[in-house]
Every structure is written in C-alpha cells, then in structure tokens.
C-alpha cells in the first residue's frame, strides 16, 4: 500500500495515529485488515492476465494509482473518516478482481453456470457468423467460441462478482477457510457496503444516486463520528479508476510480452504515451508524447476516451451537488471538448486532428427518409407489417423469458370508428414481454440499431439470446415506418413482470420532428395484461389506401392481415367495434387445407367500394390499393388446380429436420407462393404454391433466402416428380425444370421434346443411341414460335430448356437486388457453376446423350454457343419450314474408325 500511504486521503484519515484507546485499536485493526487484504488481492489480481492478457495492467500498481488519482481529484479540502478510507481502500482492491476466473469460489468452471454465459456464446456466434445461432450450436460451442464467451462474461460480470468477493470465502481440502477480508467482524459489518461500492463503478452515474445512500452510521466498535458516505466514496473510485490512463497502466515491456492486437492494442498504444496527469484549476490535465500518422487511430481512441472521462466528471459533479455531498476539486478533463486544445497537450506529428468522421447532421431527416417511403416505397401496408412483426417478436420473447408454451400469446390489430373527417385510430396490441421505461426512451428510438442486437437485451432479459430466440427485426428501423401513416402515435407498454400501474406511454405529437413525451399511463390507458399497444391516428387517405371499407372493416382487415402474415407462429386477430376475428392461427399454415393457404397468399384484399379514391398530380389512381372490376375483388374458381395442390403439398425440412416450408410444384393462374420472414410475406415465387420460411437479406425485408437445405429441397423435389408423373394435364417439362434445379431425381418426368414426343432421361438415351448427330434448339424459343401455331419438329431435332436455372424459382422476386437471393436455389450447391447451363434441363439431356455416345456431359455442354448462332430449320408449320437458333452435337468417331 505504499502508494496509498503517501496520499493526503490516507494520511489525514486512517493514517492518523490516535491516542491509545478503543479508537486507536480499531484504526490499527482497519490498517492490518487492509494490508492483509492487499496481499491476497495482489495474488488474485495476477490471475487476471491469464484470462484477459490483452487488457492493460490490473495489478497492485493500478490499485496504488487509484489512491494517488483520488487524492488529486478530491483536493486538499476533502477528508475521509478512517472507516471511509478503509471502505474506499477495500473497494479499490476488489473492483477488478472479478476479471479473473480464479476469483470464482466454486472454480473457473463456475463461469459456465452463469446465466449470461450461454447468452455470451450466442452473442459470439452471431458476431462470427452473422446468423442467429441454433440451440445446438449454443450448447456445443467450439473451444475458440467458448474462450471468447468466457472473456466476455468475465468482463461483463467482473463488477457484479466483485460485490460477492467482499464476503466470499474459500475452503481448501482440509477444511481451512480463506477470505480476502479475513476479519469476520469487518466482513459482516462493512463487507456489504464495500461490495456495493466495488460493484458501482460499472453502474451508470444515475444509478449511483438511486442505489447508494449518502451516509451510513459508524460500524460496531468504531467511534460514532466515523460515519461512511457510500455515494462520495463510489464517485471517488469511479473517477480515479477512469482517469488511470498513463504509461504506468501500459508498461512497454509488458506490452511486448502480451502483444495485444486490435482495439486492445490501440489502448496500449495511447496509454503508454501519456504522462501522469496533474491538476489545473478544476481540470485534470493529460499530456503525452507525439503520435505519428501511423498512430492516428490510437490518438483518436485517446481523444474519445478522454471525452468519456470528461462526461463522467461532469455527471458526477452534478450528482454530488444535487445530493448535497462535497464537490470534488476536479470537475472535467482539459481539452476534452476542443481538439486543438487537446492536440497542444497530446501532440500529433505532421498531421492535424480534424474530426472528419462520417456523421449525420440531420437525424430527423434521415429517419423521415429511410424510415418511410424511401426505404419501403409507397406500399400502404408496410407500417402494419412492421408493427405485426415487432409485436410477434415480443410474444416470442415472452414465451422464452416467462416460460410459456410455443403457441402462447397473440397479436391483435384493431380499428376504431371513423370520425367526421374520416379518420380512424388503428392499434396493434400484443401480449409480449413489454418494454421498460429505459427501452422506450432509448432503444425504441435508436434508429438503425435493433434492441435484439444490443447488449441491453442481456440486461433486460437474461437467457433470451441463449435460448435460440430468433427475432425477425434486425435493423432497428421498422417502427419508424408508422410515420408514413401519421404524426400522431402512442406507444403504451407494460413489462411482463410489472404491475398494471407500471404501464408507461411514449407519446408522439408531430412525428419524429418533435421530441416525444414519456409519461406514466393514466388509469384508463393502463394495460390489463402485460405487453405493448401501438396506436396510430390514420387520416382519411391512409384509411382509403389500406382498403378499409367503412361497411365491413373487420373482414377487409382480416384478409389483409392474413395476406401480410400468411405463416405467422403467433395468433393474429383483428377487431372492429365488437367483432373479433382470427386472421391467422399460430402455425396453421402447416396443416390447413392447401386451397385455403393458396387463397390466403394469392390476392391482396381490396375495399368493396370506390369511395374517396385520391389521385396523383397526373390524375391517375394512387398505387397501393388493388381493385377488381368496379371495385370488387375477383372471385377465384380453380377447383381442379386446388385439388392438385392438395395431392402435391408436402413439407420441406432444414438440416435439423425442422419444417421450413410447405409447397406444391404446381400453381393456379395467380401468384400463390411466397417466402416469408418471421411469418410475414417477403417475396413471390413462380410456378409454385405454398410457403417457404426465409431469412431477410434487406432492411425492408422484401426479399429473403429460404432456410431449406439442399438435401431437404432435393428430397421434396424428388417426391414431387414421382407424384406429378402420375398426374394428367400437367406441364411436365416445367415441373422437370423445377425438379432439376432443386437437385431432385427426375424419375419418369420428360426432359426434352422431339418429333417422337416428350422424352424422359432413359428415353433420351435410347433416342440418342440411334443418331450420329443431334440438332438442339431452345425450348423457350420453340414456345415463342408456337404462339402463332404448333410446330412439328424435324427428325433428329430436340427442344430442351437452356435457361439459367435459378430463374425458375426467383425470376419474379420483388425488388430484389441481392445476388444470394437471385441465384437461389443454385447458390445452395456451393461454388458457382463452371458452365451457365450445368443445372438446366439441357444438362440432364447432355448426360443422357453422353451415356449413349460415350462422352462426358461437360464436353457436350461446352459446345453450347455463348451467342446466338445461325438459324437452322428445326421443323415445319402448315408445311412451311420453321427456323430457329440451334446448334449441332455430333457423335465422336470411335477409336476403330
């Protein structure tokens, strides 16, 4: 404790020798206990480097430096009682010891029993892969992931664990007990406050005032005047710890031994250049040696760190003043708010510190643009989709944290009566986890950052990430789409474990341009059940754009919600007046009759009347509301098609055997297949009927890559091929094209057309065996030619599909600009194909010809011309020759020839 004993704080408190008596005896007891505690803490502090070698020094030199800096910060006018000095010194020794796994009494393995350890595994996996990890991946992490998670937990819980260490006891195999604070009397009387203060350096400044008292009475055995001011001591520890940034914290030889990299390395870079700080007036002054251009990142990290320390000083000063506590001598960091002034203290070498980072000067404008039509277009249903998505995420989270069943919870979309101006309130109410006041005031309004990706989610809902919880929201912008509808929005929320009276309201009156009002809910606003209600005032135009018919709003709203969320795993209700209807049952898409699912997906609901059709500047109808003839929705009559869907519809599985889709490889004459993200529609698929679960690839979630594995897709496609081959009146070539691109087995399905009719692979092989050359034409070009009449193919001519295969499933993806999506399902096969035709039906035909002729399939595919070739006669129509672009494959000469 050499560093401590030379300070004013020590010498004028616990270091003052008293006249003989009880007070002197108690003082000596405190000094001895602190010395003994320091010896054991030094041993434990040495273990920190084993777990966190990239961190700067946390050894005895750090503890001594905190005393010296606290002395500088407090000034000569502040004195502590001996008990306060003891509590301060003990908290200094403890505050970082939780960073060592050895500090866990049960052993280093106890870290894995912490609730946050699994959350940390999930966090590391998500940072590494960019994907939400499965429960299996979380339960069985690689050693590197486990090590990273352990480091993360040690860092996050070190302050919390420091509080436990104040009263912790170890026991050896012989039953001998050890403790950092050996005296049972001191451990019982002062251990709790020491632990809270050690813990407090990790709290926010506002929490200090809420969780620590301003004064405690003297402990038993101490003079009555030796009171303790926990808030004051905690502030001293907090500021001194934050201010220890000089070279003593980052010795160069130690840096050479540990060789930290990345962000940690930059911390060592700037700290080793800083001299010990000094006081000038009410500022702490840091100086240092020059930073070269190569070390510019370290200089900027230094500047950012000092700005953070400056904010700490200012906040603490305000807190102490507000609480009637002595204010400290230092209240800020010199140069923290002025780069030029800071550069005069911590110089740069041949470069100027100009803060030229990318920044957003008009956040409101950005939110208005990217949170609305610039991102989502003019689609009027987007805010409803985003609100249902957020509500569903909240319900899914509640299932985990409140131990509810997998089908528990609901989302309700309700509309109120129209007022005289045609306006209506629309509400989306969920029974989810709800939001605390802090989340309402911060994360909900943090544009571009999802709450589910933040560290706050671990604080609010421990264990949620580790559960494998997979939120649909990933980008933190969906909520802001509501301002496409209205500037008047209320968010009413009650956390799942909170009382009804703890409901809070975030009230917007003026959109994002004005500050919202956060207030306790009035009795009439309080939620009977936990969850969240978002309430938006729709003007008459927004009501019309959504298609809400004044005569039957519930029916239209039900159909619209079902169209938007065809595969939701949460019960979705709609309500208008007293009518409440189920729009989507949780996961009902897996078992419901296929014709109902196809109809749900197919047509966006429309209003029944043409009332109030606003027009744009050119007098044309505004996009977004689809009317049938005379404003009526067209009826769909395709009984035969629906019967076929019922025969063909089959589930699709991912690599873990989980159902991630339900499809039939036929479709009625209207769009009836979609990918869904979080149960909500993302993109349309062609030539199919049903649903594929997908992951979002864009912030607007209007495109998604299906989750089905290649094996699962191939198994489904092979089964479809067998079933379709037994059906009549089917476009077999179209089905074969889909089966082949999905890597399925074609079986008896035809793959090409000749003058002999349609040929399967086996039939194509036998057909090729009798020919020395084959003229190959594009099936697509032949279909175009037959728009004006049937064509009879010539002998030796084959029409086969040469279209790039991914177009079969994703050629009509809505607004997709993502190559991963556009190339699906070919992208499931891994590396890009060497030849563009390799997964088209022409590849299956080339394989059959190659078997007949004894050549490799790729050798034949390589002969397909990249550009159109001279037209060749491929057949006749009404006795007249028909020509098309085609090429010729010739059987190679045999060796005997």
How would you summarize this macromolecular structure in one to three sentences?
By secondary structure, the protein is an alpha+beta fold. Among the domains are: 2-113 and 149-244, no CATH class; 246-358, no CATH class; 365-548, Histidine kinase-like ATPase, C-terminal domain (Heat Shock Protein 90), CATH 3.30.565. The strands form 5 sheets. An 8-stranded mixed beta sheet has the order 10-9-8-11-7-6-12-13. A 7-stranded mixed beta sheet has the order 21-20-24-22-26-25-23. Strands 14, 15, 16, 17, 18 and 19 form a 6-stranded mixed beta sheet that branches.
Structure keywords:
single chain, 897 residues, alpha+beta, Heat Shock Protein 90, 8-stranded mixed β-sheet, 7-stranded mixed β-sheet, 34 helices, 26 strands, 38% helix, 14% strand
Write the layout of secondary structure elements.
Elements lengths: L1 H4 L2 H4 L10 H24 L2 H4 L8 H15 L7 H13 L20 H15 L5 H5 L3 H23 L4 E2 L5 E2 L5 H6 L1 H10 L4 H7 L18 H14 L8 H7 L3 H10 L6 E3 L2 E3 L10 H27 L9 E2 L5 H7 L17 H8 L2 H4 L5 H20 L8 E6 L8 E7 L6 H5 L14 H5 L27 E7 L9 E6 L7 E4 L10 E8 L1 H6 L7 H12 L6 E6 L2 E6 L9 H9 L36 H10 L1 E4 L5 E6 L7 E6 L2 E5 L4 E8 L7 E3 L3 H15 L7 H10 L10 E3 L2 E3 L1 H9 L3 E6 H7 L6 E2 L3 E4 L6 H4 L8 H4 L18 H13 L3 H5 L9 E7 L2 E11 L7
Parallel strand pairs: 4-5, 6-12, 16-18, 22-24
Antiparallel strand pairs: 1-2, 3-4, 6-7, 7-11, 8-9, 8-11, 9-10, 12-13, 14-15, 15-18, 16-17, 18-19, 20-21, 20-24, 22-26, 23-25, 25-26
